[in-house]
Write a structure and sequence with these properties.
8 helices; 61% helix
């Protein structure tokens, strides 16, 4: 079986990339929800909690990047090197004020509490891909999954 991902092609490459990133963010958000489900197989419970975290974190990252590109700020995030390009705090800072407010209000937290929680999950995509290298790792998955939901439902830019 082959799987092909085709980026839309128009005269505006930034808009094309933003649209493709947003669609991919939604796919990873759905994958996170499905991975988090618990199923009974035989006499054992199965779930894919670590992949759920990785997919949720990537969904937030791609949703933010899509919005940054759609707002015409692609060059800013493209300058980020290494793990900085995965930092949700860094990407959040590149969003418009309206988009930052969308996340804060949608999270149900006050700004300071939101920023503290965002900071705690900021590197989840990097940290959780190699979770086996750590003795212990914990994350507020409720907050991360809420961010994923918000990142994939951002209202149209004005």
């Amino acid at each position: 079986m082959r799987i092909i991902s085709v980026r839309p092609g128009t005269s505006d490459p930034d808009a094309d990339e933003a649209e493709h990133a947003f669609a991919t963010a939604i796919a990873f958000q759905v994958a996170s929800e499905r991975a988090f489900e618990t199923k009974v197989v035989g006499d054992k419970f199965q779930s894919a909690r670590v992949p759920a975290v990785v997919c949720a974190a990537l969904s937030v990252e791609l949703g933010m990047k899509a919005r940054i590109m759609a707002d015409g700020n692609r060059a800013q995030y493209k300058k980020l090197k290494g793990t900085a390009g995965h930092s949700l705090v860094t990407l959040f800072s590149l969003l418009s004020q309206d988009d930052r407010n969308w996340f804060i209000v949608g999270s149900g937290h006050e700004k300071a509490e939101f920023m503290e929680a965002l900071s705690a999950v900021s590197n989840a995509f990097v940290d959780w891909r190699y979770v086996y290298e750590q003795d212990e790792r914990a994350i507020n998955f409720s907050f991360l999954s809420k961010l994923s939901e918000l990142a994939t439902t951002l209202p149209a830019a004005s």
